[in-house]
């Protein structure tokens, strides 16, 4: 039973043999009947090919050269780790041990909503916490990308959920038993992909908030240390004046009191000078830390945008524009208890197939993006993340530059492959539909 519109709906009106026409040649009759059957199939194939070409143009338009340059941004991911290595080295200096942060509450970028809290009042401990948050962000990104990769493949494989759903529309038994469960599978899979993408973005965004907070604290504390240094410098000048006065007095007529006063002045000067040196070292550490935090923030913003634009917004847009329309049209025509009454109009059928083709193309790209990230993460990111605290800046820098170059090449190749990947997937999908129609014919 053909639950789609009759293939004749795709035929031109008036085609076929005239009613009552007599032909004694049996072979001619068979040829004519064969031609009648082939014309609807040809029209159906033509409809599929038109839908294919339109879907390819649409999906290609999703990935124009003016899009966010995710390849370049992703290639800079090792520099974020390099910035953390530099930050650890600055914060681990002995004179950084006593530096305290100004506030513990981590606010959103507008400074209005509390998003978290630092674990300690000491800057060094919070730098370690920043590294832990970053490590968790990279690990979670790999985990969620793995989930996205698996679910996107399950949607787009030759016998994946999208193909299954289109095929189920042809059989009443499948409509009764399998259509609704497969619709639920598609919706759940896309929803999970979106949830995984949102989780990655949220983790990198929180890391950015921690970085922003620490940078602000570093700059605020540096200002306080600078003020303290000014105060100490003035104390030094006062002590030097007092020491010189005691020295002149002792030179004229030395007394035991003058000797004690001179000795005290020397000790005060020595202590003040030591304090000033310590404050200068703290200022250097805070200034260096603020710089590394600023560089780190820049790279994390780029990575967050990569995940947001290439995954979260892409999947969310696909869910809103294609998945819902795709499933709604089927659902509105579906009565599982009376599958024989299920029938899609010609226009609805074309809309369903067009949406299915776009889903096929877009999620085939998602498969490739997620797979590329997993390869990059396994090869270049995870090994360095696990050793951030122990890596030496100079030793890591050369390897970092090599990783940036290699990631850039891989990501750029994936970026160039987008259009071809989507087109190949859509063409293969349509080819299977046409072949299935011919087999049924």
TrEMBL record:
Protein origin, superkingdom: Eukaryota
Stretches with biased composition (Basic and acidic residues): 224-240
Annotated region described as Disordered, given as residue ranges: 1-42, 224-260
Designated name of the protein: Uncharacterized protein
The species this protein was found in: Lasiosphaeria ovina
């Amino acid at each position: 039973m053909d639950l789609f519109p009759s293939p004749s709906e795709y035929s031109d009106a008036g085609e076929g043999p005239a009613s009552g026409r007599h032909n004694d040649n049996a072979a001619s009759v068979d040829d004519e009947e064969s031609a009648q059957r082939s014309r609807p199939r040809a029209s159906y194939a033509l409809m599929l090919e038109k839908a294919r070409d339109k879907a390819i143009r649409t999906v290609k338009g999703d990935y124009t050269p003016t899009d966010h340059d995710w390849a370049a941004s992703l290639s800079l991911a090792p520099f974020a780790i390099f910035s953390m290595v530099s930050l650890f080295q600055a914060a681990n200096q002995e004179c950084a041990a006593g530096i305290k942060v100004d506030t513990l509450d981590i606010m959103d970028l507008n400074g209005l909503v509390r998003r978290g809290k630092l674990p300690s009042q000491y800057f060094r401990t919070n730098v370690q916490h920043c590294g832990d948050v970053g490590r968790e962000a990279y690990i979670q990104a790999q985990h969620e990308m793995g989930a996205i990769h698996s679910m996107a493949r399950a949607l787009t494989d030759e016998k994946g959920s999208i193909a299954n759903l289109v095929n189920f529309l042809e059989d009443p038994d499948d409509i009764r038993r399998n259509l609704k469960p497969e619709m639920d599978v598609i919706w759940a899979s896309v929803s999970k992909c979106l949830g995984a993408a949102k989780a990655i973005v949220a983790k990198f965004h929180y890391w950015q908030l921690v970085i922003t907070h620490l940078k602000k604290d570093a700059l605020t504390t540096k200002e306080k240390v600078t003020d303290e240094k000014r105060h100490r410098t003035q104390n030094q000048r006062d002590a030097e004046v007092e020491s010189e006065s005691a020295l002149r007095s002792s030179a004229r007529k030395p007394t035991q009191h003058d000797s004690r006063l001179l000795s005290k002045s020397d000790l005060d000067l020595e202590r003040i000078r030591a304090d000033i040196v310590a404050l200068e070292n703290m200022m250097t550490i805070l200034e260096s830390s603020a710089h590394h935090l600023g560089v780190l923030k820049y790279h994390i913003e780029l990575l967050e945008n990569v995940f947001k634009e290439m995954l979260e917004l892409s999947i969310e847009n696909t869910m809103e524009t294609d998945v819902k329309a795709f499933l709604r049209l089927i659902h509105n025509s579906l009565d599982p208890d009376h599958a024989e009454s299920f029938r899609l109009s010609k226009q609805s059928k074309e809309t369903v197939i067009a949406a299915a083709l776009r889903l096929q193309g877009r999620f085939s790209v998602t498969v490739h993006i997620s797979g590329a990230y997993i390869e990059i993460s396994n090869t270049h990111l995870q090994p360095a993340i696990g050793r951030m605290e122990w890596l030496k800046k100079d030793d890591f820098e050369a390897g970092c530059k090599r990783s940036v170059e290699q990631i850039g090449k891989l990501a750029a190749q994936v970026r160039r492959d987008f259009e071809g990947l989507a087109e190949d997937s859509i063409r293969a999908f349509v080819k299977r539909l046409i072949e299935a129609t011919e087999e049924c014919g």
